[in-house]
Amino acid sequence: MNWYQLSAEETEQQLHVSHKTGLTYDQVLSYQNTFGKNIVEQKEKVSNWFIFIKQFQDFMVLILLGATLIAGLLGEFIDATAILVIVLINGFIGFFQEFRAENSLEKLRELSAPTTYVLREGHWERVPSAEIVVGDIIRLTRGDRISADVRIIKSHGLETEESALTGESIPITKETSPIQTDDLDPQDQTNMAFMGTVVSRGSGIGIVVQTGMNTMMGKIATLMTTTEQKTTPLENRLIHLGKILIVIVLALTAMIVAIGVIQGNPLYHMFLAGISLAVAAIPEGLPAIVTVALSLGVQRMIKRKSIVRKLSAVETLGCATIICSDKTGTITENEMTVKQIFLNDEIIHVSGDGYQLDGHFYQNEEEVTSSYPNLASMLTYGMICNHANIVIQKGKYKIDGDPTDGALLVAARKFGLKEKIREQYTIIKEIPFDAHRKRMSMIVEDENKLRFLIVKGAPDVLLSKCRYVRTKKGQKELTDQTYYERAVEQMARRSLRTIAIAIKPILKSSSLIDSELENDLTLLGIYGMIDPPRKEVKQAIANCKKAGIQTVMITGDHVDTAQAIATEIELLPKHGEVISGTELNNLSTAELKERVDNIYVYARVTPEHKLKIVKALQEKGHVVAMTGDGVNDAPAIKASDIGISMGLTGTDVTKEASSLILMDDNFSTIEAAIREGRNIYENIRKFIRYLLASNVGEILVMLLAILFAYPLPLVPVQILWVNLVTDGLPAIALGVDKPEGNVMKRSPRDPQESVFARGLGMKILSRGFFIGVVSLIGFIIAYDGDQSNLTYARTIAFTTLVIAQLIHVFDCRSETSIFMRNPFENLYLVLSVISSLLLMLVVIYWSKLQPIFHTTPLQMKDWFLIIVLSLIPTIVFNMRRSPQ
Predict the structure, then answer these.
(1) What is the mean pLDDT of residues 550-570?
(2) In 3D, which of 626, 683, 634 has the Cα closest to residue 657?
(3) In a domain, 645, yes or no
């Protein structure tokens, strides 16, 4: 039922209740038994143990656990322990990420008010909000968090702050009259108040019409429970990579075991060879190194004021094709600011944005001083007829009170007026703002005991009540009202919110009856204000456009305001479309999908609209980044490829549902995060290239040795040492490599792109082939020279493999040639290579480790052979490519 279309009397009749007495206790008990408690329900919570076990269901992890078991049964306890440690570390990381993601709906429940004043059997009493039922009469006063969806039946200047639902911080004035419009969006239902929103001004009485999961908040909770979170492109790529490696492992293991048995080798040795190949093929350190690289990227992003909640989603920004951004507080300052004043039949421009007190007044590009007629008076009256205050929070000026009042207060402070001026006036009477009156009046008395009335409100209302207007030459009769109406229209075309201010002297003997006060007023002027765009947003949007990323504005604000802001920041191209929530209602998802690429601004939208937009974009093949701060944004944020919440103004629900939190609520921070995300993915490709080329070399040296009937050149513990220690440190250092210069001039990569795309697969195979061949050559030379000393030959193969890989790591920094990057740009990489070399020397020359790692000390001639062989892959590889 559309409760907003019913009158207060009709609502009472439908719910069998009177606003004078409320429900009876029998009715309350009956309704509670029928409809249950007034709570936002949670989906059944998954046990922590189940979440932990689920981390080990991946096929690649099961293969590693199988290899661990076999290695343990064969007595290879070092290999088994190393593999098990890596698997457990990654299991715990996945567990903690998923555990935190389960908290979103619990935060929704916290938005419910703990207690509420309810009228039952003629008596007001405070009851737990969970016990509220449909039909209850509840009392609303300033500061209350509303406990259910209610139809307002009495309003005394009642305003509610609904940013948790709509994303807009401007308080909504509530009225009691029915609204006959069909299919009205919640933000336009001005005679309704909703669960989780807050009373910001005035008081009122309402009838509860929806509770629990039937409320707007409950519907959002339903959307969240039914919305599936998408896997990120990186997760998809690593899953794909794992499947490829598993196929390789199984095929090679079966082939080698079969060949070895056919050649007459013992089955035990061939099983050992199979495990060695499995260890060589699967980069056990890859998941850990990916996690470390992402964690290091997270630390860099924190310095750029971005907090990452889900590691695997970091690089998703790098392939984002669409940013769906909220307007208020992200693109704009979320600080209402006076930009124009119409006074003395002239337009005065006001500089400075937001609540900072720096700014100047200009008329025809000349600065206006205190001698300019009537300006100081107008600003003073705007400050007096005002309940807002300027406060300092964390070194910044903030407004405590209504944003519109705050804008007038800041404008007065910019002109040099002090708030203590208000102490010189005594308030005699106040008529609060009302949705029908569209104005607020205040009678004040100054230090000289002179009284006067100050009225501020909608210009169309005040102009009809003004008889005079103040000009430079003094007060004159207002004869041409249309002149001032045109001034208001000009401001409105710039999407400025307008508010007029007028005064009237009051004698002490005058009547103070409301209807007799607000007549024969003297118009002072008209304020024009707007929530201004952030200064850096325009350039950030331009940078995103160069990077092939479209920015879309999704807001609960009016169409004209949204369009004006989008045009000002050059978000809206010449032929771009602007669409309202009402129009969205009439479009199917298929129809929206056809138009979605050309729509840049969505205005007056609901949570369902946002979810619909995200899904249409995703069906069109886009990778969607969605920003938001209110509870209304949470379902769309969860459904998007990467959800971005606001750190300053965002609700806990939105933060828990998101992958990325902006510490400064600034759109330009998203652009910086995209840059970082692209670089992180490129760095991941670098160390995948490095690790897999190294592992291909390890596989080939083992495979070719068996095919040529040689002993195994490497034992499993040596392979693990190379994979987890020697390869690990340089791979981590590649994760902090600086981006190449064109990172934000390339189009977003295709989310379906394989991790081996752009020639990476061939680079891995070709370099791995050379690394494996030269390592085998070293082994053969040493073994054929002295077949009695297998440990010596294995040490040569092991050392050649390590040195060749450490040289190769510098080649991985560039897509073209090793000579394109200065190796000392990444000091971490240089230090990691030196550390790996030192660790290798410890394994070779420390006698206590030699039996464990099957090594023996090398002579100078051995090192000469190793270095020559290790340089061959780099020389051959770079001779084929010319630097660009």
Answers:
(1) 89
(2) 634
(3) yes
Asked if 360 and 442 sit in the same domain, the reply is: yes
Question: Of the residues 665, 694, 712, which one is the last residue of a structural domain?
Answer: 665
The neighbouring-strand residues paired with 138 are 118, 206
Beta bridge partners of 119: 124, 137
Coil, strand, or helix at residue 526? strand
pLDDT in tens, 112-125: 447 788 999 999 99
Report residue 111's pLDDT band, with 50, 70 and 90 as the boundaries. Answer: very low
* Cα 301 from chain centre: 13
- Comparing CA positions, the residue from 672, 330, 360, 340 lying closest to residue 534 is 330
Q: Which helix (H) or strand (E) holds 159?
A: strand 149-161
Minimal CA–CA distance to 91: which of 121, 116, 126, 64?
Answer: 64
How many domains does the chain divide into? 5
CA 680 to CA 690: how far, in whole Å?
15
For the entire predicted model, the pTM comes to 0.65
User: At which residue do the structure tokens 């295709």 appear?
Assistant: 750
Dump the DSSP string for 211-267. Answer: -GGGSHHHHHHHHHHHPPPPPPHHHHHHHHHHHHHHHHHHHHHHHHHHHHHHTT--H
Counting every residue written for the chain, the total comes to 884
Angle in degrees, CA 816, 671, 551, rounded to 5 = 110
260 shares its domain with 341: no
Is 177 part of any domain? Answer: yes
The encoded tokens of residue 808 equal: 């190769």
DSSP character at residue 118: E
According to DSSP, the β-strands at 550-554 and 599-603 are parallel
Beta carbons of 280 and 768 less than 8 angstroms apart: no
In a domain, 670, yes or no: no
As a whole number of angstroms, the distance between CA 762 and CA 768 comes to 10
List, by residue number, the catalytic residues: 326
Q: Residues 590, 641: one domain?
A: yes
How many Å apart are CA 246 and CA 226, to the nearest integer? 34
Residue-number span of the structural domain to which 342 is assigned: 337-530
Q: Residue 688 and residue 416: Cα distance in Å, rounded?
A: 62
Q: How far apart are the first and last CA of the chain?
A: 68
- Say if residue 596 is in the same domain as residue 708: no
Residue showing tokens 């025809």: 364
